[in-house]
């Protein structure tokens, strides 16, 4: 167990809920010296956002440099969640920070990041721009940070507001803490308009997807995290399997339907749809404030996501050639197509490049047509491919009518991506595959 003793600078009176909630909080402050020790143990995995260098962090640096005595007044400080809390003598408290999914810095990530980078800049004349780099530097140089700080304390004359949320001593308080802490964390971060994907990630909606995809793709699940694939792009495409279930009455009746066109044009709706499915009591079980997917049917539908991402990359690279095969004319002569640049497979499953850089709207309906290749096995309660699109011979697709429709809408990728006739034609194309 990772325990740490914090020396509080202000009073450490415990505030309990007047409404009978078995969670309590302590509001006080800590010194930069205590902050250094805290950051060596605490992380912000519980926080749905990752702090980065921006106007906020620069403003905090300016306050710490020019008017450090005002930081305690100007900042909300750091919010810490911990399962275990003990009051000690001399205004000290002992907390645990072992379970990083629930314990740690749950709000105030930008304050933490800004203070840490400010200390590093002052002591080492080194500028760091990411949370991961800062944490790594802290771990690797902790003893040196302590040593340099002791000889330069006069540079850090400020107090850091701190709030600690923890179970009280009543029976069942730990269970209640786990039930509510994710909800509290999301609410505390709402003042920055936290994206629905970050909220969904916080409560576990995407955990099953992450388990199967994170070792293959660099997906950004948390706001401010590093990566090159947006989580909403993955979530929207993974919704295809869920749409198939809904169309075949294999999801609860009270789950609202999602139009396939939304996968191209309204990814926010896809996220809402996905979250609604995964939060349903018939699909997932809520444990410690997080949703654990139990439905084998939904799991099997989400298992198709990796194949869909592979197919997306293949189709992006090959679509210009398929266009040429289906009808005379040069794809590169379309005004919205950049024939001077080659296109990179967006999900990185292939090193092949497209001959052109162009809008995904040209082929999004074809991606959504993949539901015609899905089949439900009632005996095993699972969805599977009739033919895996990852291995599909793309030259076998008859796109002649699809290309004619492209001409009718004057080669406008927006009209293609939002046109229901293209989605109907795409389903027909895949229906013909044996």
UniProtKB/TrEMBL annotation:
- Which PROSITE patterns does the annotation name? PROKAR_LIPOPROTEIN
Q: Which InterPro entries match?
A: AIPR_C
Question: How is this protein named in the record?
Answer: Abortive phage infection protein C-terminal domain-containing protein
Domain Abortive phage infection protein C-terminal: start-end pairs: 54-221
